[in-house]
Amino acid sequence: MQQGNTLSPASLSRRGLAGYQRFDIPTSALPERKSPPTNPPGASGPTQTRYAVVTEWCGRAAAVTAVVLFGMVLLTIHKGLLVQDSARTVVDNFRVTNEFFARRADLTAPATARKQLDELNGVLAQLNSAAATDVDHLAALLPNAQALVAAGQGDTQIAGQLESVATTLQGSAASLHQVSADANTTVSTVNDELTRALDLTTQLNSELTRTANKLALVPASDAFIPAPEGNR
Question: How far apart are CA 142 and CA 161, in angstroms?
Answer without folding.
Answer: 29
